[in-house]
């Protein structure tokens, strides 16, 4: 039988054959095993005798009966077979091999069993295992297996493949801090040393690799100065050398390191390099995928500005907390900042953002770890405090308000943020978070109604009030769209001489088909809260201008119309231009409108408000300070804006003849206003005594029921006529009626 050349095997040749790591096996023409080399026994555990009972491949393939006939087929047709096979070793363990089978003395039409075969088997267990690892990792990534578990498994598989190495994956965060992500075989005391390590050029292999962005090798930890005092702890745990490779994301940023710790001082070999090269990529994919999952979760559930849970997340956490409370009491707080919009508009959005972050921090400082805090919308926050009794409510709510009201400096401007808080109790006021939040919100709303820096406890009747508000907003929207509001006008009279008509104030009126006349302060407040105030004011200006033009066309002598504006109107950047266009459309000019504003407009330093005020003034429109004396009442503010008229609030006027304080204050207001060149209009003049007192003390203009109630436009013409006739020659201080 000729096996291979040389025909007679030399000693050298036989030695080479036996020392080969591949398994060689030769059969005779009856396919009985004739020779095996030593490599065969080393690889599969079988001796020549073990192989005598069957066709060798059939025996080695074990149960895999379909494959054996297939290989036979190939051999009969082509005389050769190559492929990767999973064989069973003698001890039953599986072994992947690359198999090459060749027939010898092949005839043109060979018959089964008439040719000898040479079978060469090469161990490819390593490659196969690596492919399996790769497949498994990618599968795990797709199946969203937790990152730490996935990397833990990877380390384990690598350690099986290269037993002299302990593998570890470190996480590197954006600030350059390293923490172990997976290190299945590293002793706990060493693992402790690896936590919270800052990346740097001279601190051990992984911290350096993370810092430098390229591989770092410490061939002998014991001898390396950079490892310092910790070196002995590593070496005594059997970690003698470390080879660290940075894991980079697609942007090239280091997000982790893959570290090989060797059990002897040494450097990596070619096999280690190949493994690391492939694993780095897999780690990067897994880590990046995890990071984006985390980011998506952050975006979906956390508020990016304050890092607090958003509404969805708050609800979820709160539901869990309520569930865990199992009948114990708890409190839900709903917090809304006062005048946040004003803040945001006047100091800019960056300042608004800084304030919100600060508020979030302050809320954190007055809550416990088990409390759930969330940001629900722009300036609304919620807190669930489990295991709190209702009697703790006053203390907790006040503490929250106090924390918020600490002075806060931004861009060098010192301000004091304020808020209102509504509180309700679990389980009395609701058993699910949605109901509890709604009730706490209603209580917050009630607190707002009382002013700034207040808190209120939920009461069931609050629900009714908020429902009414919602109904009113809906109805007002429909009414405005249908042009269903009206304007009434109230004359203003000059106190001296013939009681000449000074002007009229336009006042909005709403008659609802079911509710009747709705008090203006109520629907104006709803309009301001809902944003409908812009539509309302546009309508108001247009209606007032239309009416003024009509009166003039009818020959009614009307000096001007006063209209009431809200602070919010001035936040529209093109508000002044809108007013201007309306005037032009009706052939009127700036002097024909008097714009009544409140002190909050004066205090609002937002660029839009200041621009609008300046533009309106430049167009010749006059500004009137309404309700003077009720708000901040600071005369020192008056010079800030080009105010030409002061409206003395009716609360002063009504007391002017009975209270010495009211009369003293009124006198000083009259003095200062006169010296500043402003006209004072006294509001709510109801009696002759009030009118006389005011006229005597030099108040130039009077408005109130004493002269006329607000009336429909059509009544104004006749009223003006009668008034002129009646007072043609009668001074106010000696009225006829
Ligand atoms: P205001 O600007 O201070 O208007 C004067 C209010 O006093 C009016 O109430 C008027 O009817 C009432 N009044 C007039 N004379 C007397 C009097 O002798 N005695 C008493 N007790 N009251 C008198 P009204 O019409 O109910 O309006 C209330 C408030 O609603 C207004 O206060 C104003 O702030 C607001 N408002 C009314 N119309 C509008 C509007 O078109 N736009 C805006 N933004 N606010 C409006
Ligand atoms: Ca007014
Ligand atoms: Ca007023």
Count of DSSP helices? 25
CATH topology of the largest domain: TIM Barrel
Domain count, please report it.
Answer: 4
Q: Give the integer mean of the pLDDT values.
A: 89
Provide the gyration radius in Å. 45 Å
Given helix and strand content, the structural type is: alpha+beta
What hetero molecules are bound to the protein chains? ligand C2E, calcium ion
Tell me the β content: 15-25%
Organism: Comamonas aquatica
Domain EAL: 469-724
Domain GGDEF: 328-460
EC number: 3.1.4.52
What can you tell me about this protein's structure?
Strand 3 and strand 4 form a beta hairpin. By secondary structure, this protein is α+β, with helices and mostly antiparallel strands. The strands form 5 sheets. Strands 19-20-22-23-24-25-26-27 form an 8-stranded mixed beta barrel, surrounded by 4 helices. Helix 15 crosses helix 16 and helix 19 packs parallel to helix 21. The N terminus is likely disordered. It is built from 25 helices and 28 strands. The structure holds ligand C2E and calcium ion (2 copies). Its EC number is 3.1.4.52. This is Cyclic di-GMP phosphodiesterase Gmr.
Supply the key terms:
737 residues; alpha+beta; Beta-Lactamase; Alpha-Beta Plaits; 4 domains; 8-stranded mixed beta barrel; 6-stranded antiparallel β-sheet; 25 helices; 28 strands; 43% helix; disordered N terminus; binds ligand C2E; binds calcium ion; PAS-like_dom_sf; Cyclic di-GMP phosphodiesterase Gmr; GAF
């Amino acid at each position: 039988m000729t096996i291979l050349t040389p025909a007679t095997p030399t000693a050298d040749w036989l030695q080479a054959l036996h020392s080969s790591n591949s398994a060689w096996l030769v059969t005779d023409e009856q396919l009985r095993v004739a020779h095996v080399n030593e490599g065969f026994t080393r690889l599969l555990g079988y001796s020549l005798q073990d192989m005598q009972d069957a066709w060798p491949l059939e025996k080695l393939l074990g149960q895999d009966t379909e494959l054996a006939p297939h290989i036979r087929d190939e051999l009969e047709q082509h005389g050769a077979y190559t492929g990767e096979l999973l064989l069973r070793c003698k001890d039953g363990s599986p072994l992947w091999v690359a198999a090459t089978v060749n027939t010898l003395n092949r005839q043109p039409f060979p018959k089964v069993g008439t040719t000898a075969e040479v079978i060469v088997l090469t161990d490819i267990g390593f490659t196969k295992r690596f492919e399996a690892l790769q497949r498994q990792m990618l599968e795990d990534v797709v199946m969203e297996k937790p990152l730490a578990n996935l990397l833990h498994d990877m380390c384990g598989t690598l350690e099986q493949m290269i037993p002299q190495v302990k593998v570890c994956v470190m996480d590197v965060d954006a600030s350059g801090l390293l923490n172990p992500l997976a290190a299945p075989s590293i002793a706990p005391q060493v693992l402790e040393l690896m936590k919270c390590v800052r990346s740097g050029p001279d601190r051990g292999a992984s911290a350096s690799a993370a810092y430098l962005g390229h591989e770092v090798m410490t061939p002998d930890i014991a001898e390396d100065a950079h490892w310092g005092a910790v070196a002995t702890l590593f070496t005594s745990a059997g970690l003698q050398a470390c080879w660290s490779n940075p894991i980079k994301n697609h942007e090239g940023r280091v997000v982790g390191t893959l570290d090989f710790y060797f059990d002897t001082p040494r450097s990596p070999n070619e096999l280690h390099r190949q493994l690391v090269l492939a694993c780095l990529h897999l780690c990067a994919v897994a880590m990046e995928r995890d990071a984006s999952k985390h980011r998506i979760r952050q975006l979906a559930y956390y508020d990016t500005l304050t890092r607090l849970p958003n509404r969805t997340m708050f609800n979820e956490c709160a539901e869990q907390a309520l569930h865990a409370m199992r009948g114990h009491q708890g409190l839900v707080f709903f917090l809304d900042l006062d005048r946040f919009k004003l803040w945001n508009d006047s100091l800019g959005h960056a300042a608004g953002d800084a304030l919100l972050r600060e508020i979030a921090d302050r809320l954190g400082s007055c809550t416990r770890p088990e409390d759930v805090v969330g940001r629900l919308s722009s300036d609304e926050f919620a807190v669930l405090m489990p295991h709190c009794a209702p009697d703790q409510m006053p203390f907790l709510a006040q503490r929250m308000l106090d924390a918020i009201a600490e002075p806060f400096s931004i861009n060098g401007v010192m301000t004091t943020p304020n808020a209102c808080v509504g509180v309700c109790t679990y389980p009395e006021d609701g058993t699910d978070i949605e109901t509890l939040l709604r009730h706490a919100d209603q209580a917050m709303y009630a607190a707002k109604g009382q002013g700034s820096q207040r808190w209120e406890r939920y009461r069931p009747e609050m629900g009714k009030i908020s429902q009414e508000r919602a109904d009113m907003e809906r109805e007002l929207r429909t009414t405005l769209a249908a042009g269903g509001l009206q304007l009434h006008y109230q004359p203003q009279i000059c106190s001296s001489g013939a009681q000449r008509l000074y002007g009229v104030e336009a006042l909005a009126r709403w008659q609802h088909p079911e509710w009747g006349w709705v008090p203006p302060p109520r629907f104006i407040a709803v309009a301001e809260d809902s944003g409908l105030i812009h539509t309302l004011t546009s309508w108001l200006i247009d209606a007032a201008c239309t009416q003024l033009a009509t009166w003039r066309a009818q020959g009614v002598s009307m000096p001007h119309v006063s209209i009431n504006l809200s602070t919010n109107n001035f936040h529209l950047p093109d508000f002044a231009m809108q007013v201007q266009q309306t005037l032009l459309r009706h052939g009127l000019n700036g002097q024909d409108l008097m714009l009544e504003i409140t002190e909050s407009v004066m205090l609002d330093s937002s660029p839009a408000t200041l621009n609008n005020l300046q533009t309106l003034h430049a167009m010749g429109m006059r500004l009137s300070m309404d309700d003077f004396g009720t708000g901040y009442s600071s005369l020192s503010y008056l010079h800030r804006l080009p105010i030409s008229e002061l409206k003395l609030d009716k609360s002063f006027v009504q007391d002017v003849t009975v209270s010495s304080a009211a009369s003293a204050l009124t006198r000083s207001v009259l003095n200062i206003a006169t010296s500043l060149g402003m006209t004072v209009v006294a509001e709510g003049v109801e009696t002759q005594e009030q009118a006389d007192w005011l006229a005597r003390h030099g108040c130039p203009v009077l408005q109130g029921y004493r002269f006329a109630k607000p009336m429909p436009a059509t009544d104004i013409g006749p009223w003006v006529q009668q008034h002129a006739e009646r007072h043609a020659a009668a001074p106010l201080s000696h009225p006829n009626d």
